[in-house]
Specification:
Blueprint: H1 2-34, E1 41-45, H2 52-68, E2 72-76, H3 83-90, E3 98-103, H4 104-113, H5 120-123, E4 124-133, E5 135-140, H6 148-157, E6 163-166, H7 172-184, E7 189-192, H8 196-204, E8 210-214, H9 215-223, E9 227-232, E10 259-266, H10 271-285, H11 288-297, E11 299-301, H12 306-327
Parallel strand pairs: 1-2, 1-3, 6-7, 6-8
Antiparallel strand pairs: 3-10, 4-10, 4-11, 5-8, 5-9
Length: about 325
């Protein structure tokens, strides 16, 4: 009996000790959250250097570094249409020190095309939308079409000679060009490349004749006269492209490929950390320096809350899901 009582007392003492020991651990965890960030933050870009997502990432980190008081280091982890970098962040510790520069492509297209591997609402926490990118429709200079309708007529007459580029199977360019093909009855053949930069160079060299892409990814080539811009998305013409008609003006108002980019973190990242990251990003997006960079790159800043990004993702998944299934778009 005495031995049993001694064992009970020992157990009680151990439980009390464990509870007391846990208190400072929780306190330290709270302190680390309150003082976030205390070391450099890694920003993963799931695409090759030189593309729209990479350009935006390197622009964002400058302002966010000042707002957060810690360096942000951009790291490109391309491959599998953006899935490699996305999975890397998904598996990272939910502490705010590993972030994802995400986009319509890897946050909407990927889960529609590869639903068993990645689901944004399940696997990541939204920080916020950053920008909408002005999307352009281009042809190579060797293509004798100076309007979108002329290109469609040319493709119908020469269906075996008109090809289009994309950043890969299941990418933004692949999806929206297939949508355009279906709407315009334009028989053009898909040629996938590994990223935005290679697809642009394919257009410059006339390996392909058609490309749908964010203007920032092709801006230097367009300004140098190496490619021809036939149309742009949006309700009005960008100041950078005052002589280029909108898709509505070109006769294709139902075709509106809107490309957005934002920031995400691993699921279960503390809300206090998400709030700090969101505030730093919004401060950057509203700064005069970023506004000037956005104007030059045909971006529209979209500061807001994580909930706003969640609603956009949900809306896009609902809107584009039926089209992906109907057109049977597959990933690499």
């Amino acid at each position: 009996m005495k031995r049993r009582q001694s064992l009970q007392q020992l157990c009680c003492a151990w439980i009390s000790f464990t509870a007391m020991a846990a208190t400072p651990i929780l306190g330290n965890a709270q302190t680390r959250t309150d003082t976030f960030p205390e070391r450099p933050i890694k920003l993963i870009v799931p695409f090759p250097p030189g593309g729209t997502t990479d350009i935006l990432a390197r622009t964002l980190v400058e302002g966010m570094r000042e707002a957060l008081g810690q360096p942000l280091v951009v790291e490109n982890k391309q491959g599998a249409g953006g899935l490699i970098g996305t999975e890397f962040v998904k598996a990272a510790a939910p502490d705010g020190y590993t972030l994802l520069l995400t986009s319509l492509h890897n946050h909407v297209m990927l889960p529609l095309i590869q639903p068993t591997q990645f689901q944004p609402e399940r696997d990541l926490s939204s920080i916020g939308l950053a920008v909408q990118a002005n999307t352009t429709v281009l042809v190579s200079n060797a293509t004798p079409a100076h309007s979108l309708k002329e290109f469609v007529e040319l493709a119908r007459k020469q269906p075996d000679r008109m090809n289009y580029a994309s950043s890969g199977n299941g990418s933004f360019g692949h999806f929206f060009t297939e949508v355009f093909k279906a709407q315009a009855d334009a028989p053009i053949t898909h040629v996938p490349y590994k990223g935005a930069a290679p697809s642009v160079m394919a257009l410059v060299s006339n390996e392909v004749q058609f490309l749908v892409i964010a203007y920032s990814a092709v801006q230097s080539n367009a300004e140098a006269g190496q490619v021809r811009v036939l149309a742009q998305d949006g309700e009005r013409r960008s100041p950078l492209l005052p002589n280029v008609p909108t898709l509505a003006e070109a006769g294709y108002g139902n075709f509106q490929p809107t490309f957005w980019l934002g920031l995400s973190a691993p699921k279960n990242t503390p809300q206090a950390v998400i709030a700090k990251l969101n505030a730093a990003m919004n401060t950057t997006l509203r700064s005069a320096a970023f506004e000037e960079r956005a104007r030059k790159s045909a971006w529209t800043s979209t500061p807001g809350t994580p909930d706003m990004m969640d609603r956009r993702i949900t809306s896009d998944l609902k809107q584009y899901g039926p089209t992906v299934r109907k057109l049977n778009i597959k990933a690499d």
